[in-house]
Amino acid sequence: MKMPIEYSNRKVMVLGLGRSGVGAVNLLKQLDAEVSVMDEKGYEELQGLIEKIDKEGVSVITDGFDMDLLCQSDAVVVSPGIPTNIQQLVQLKNMGVRIIGEFELAFEVIEGCRKNGACRFLSVTGTNGKSTTTMLLHNMLELSGYNAILGGNIGIALSEGALKVLEIFRKNNGTRLPDHIVTEVSSFQLENIEYFKPKVSTILNIAPDHLDRYANMDEYLEAKCLVFKNQDSMDFLVLNGDDPYTPEIEQRIGEDGPEVFYFSRKRQVKGAFVKDNAIFFNLPEHEILFKEQLSSDSALIAIDDIRIKGVHNVENVMAAALMALLSGASVNAIREVAMSFEGLSHRLEHVATFGGVDYINDSKATNVAAVVKSLEGFERPVILIAGGKDKGDDLTVLSELIRQRVKALVLIGKAKEKFRQTFAGLTDIYLEADMYSAVYKASEVSQSGDIVLLSPACASFDMFNDYEHRGEVFKDAVLAIKTQSGVAI
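RESULT FIELD:
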């Protein structure tokens, strides 16, 4: 693939200096671009990130967007946190300035280095389960003997992977390139793609999310469907056969679009499915793709043998396994990873048990649908810590689960009053000022056999840097209270 724009000696502005902005700056420097970076935040707030960029020759503009400087750019690389419809970007588009995301920039660089079938992109999107599925897929491929790079929304900017690929390409003329680029991709990242084209993609599920950014669910779904925008009949798309939005996704697939496979917990489908409490495959016409013969009568793995628990993780394992198979992974490697993978931090992560109470960190549950899945997995009484920055989700979806399973609701953040009004009368409700006081209150009202669960149903940015920071503060609070209780850690 030829680069759509030659970056050498061209003026490129990186808009937004988050993790992806840092990666974009350093990648553009290697492409010999004249790089500037601009952010609305102040210099002191950004200092830690500024220290991570190659600053030689890079102009750093803070405290706002300077339209005069933006207009002098040949191209603008936008961080995913910045909406594409802000006035400055609309004006630049009307002027003919090329605007892309960091994810698209990295893809184009990697594709420009690609040789002999290397660097096949595998992409995971959806509302919930993306990071777990992406990591499962990466591990399945690595255990099968492939060299796979991980990047995207999983916490490693794809531009960091592009830098590695570019270095290998220049040193070895493309002879030792990675086999697969395994990516988690958000709807925000997909908004600014042009040429991005994965070999295998999946949309795990769709549920209301980011409705503070999107006008409605149709607009949000449209963004997710961009993952297969450029896929053709030689590519593969994996969909959730049980998800109510799947028929709407199918309507958006063109005649020359990717071949579709499904995963389902409820029925036998073309792809992966659950039967007799085990996962099976139904892919007879595609056996030529695989390292080992597959039989629809032979189970991949019993559900009880999957290390990470919960119905949502059964779906994640099926999606990852199907994508791995379509990418040449071995059945034995897929099975071994499913049996050994312990899960990721901040996703139903067990923090501690004391006084007969389990403390669970589910900080990654940033929307209502994720909290539904979490609460459905517990039969014991739950003290739920929730709240944060409202994303526009319909909280009433949680009402019956709150009534049935939540012994007490402990609320924090800007959305706590909205939560209180929504769930008044369904359970005991406490409003707290910070995470420590919330955990203390939860431990105070809990009894042996209860679960204290952080599952916020909100974004974290009103009180924390991100969901990871929120989860770490929760864990610190739990361990501090455990120490105060006199129980050895």
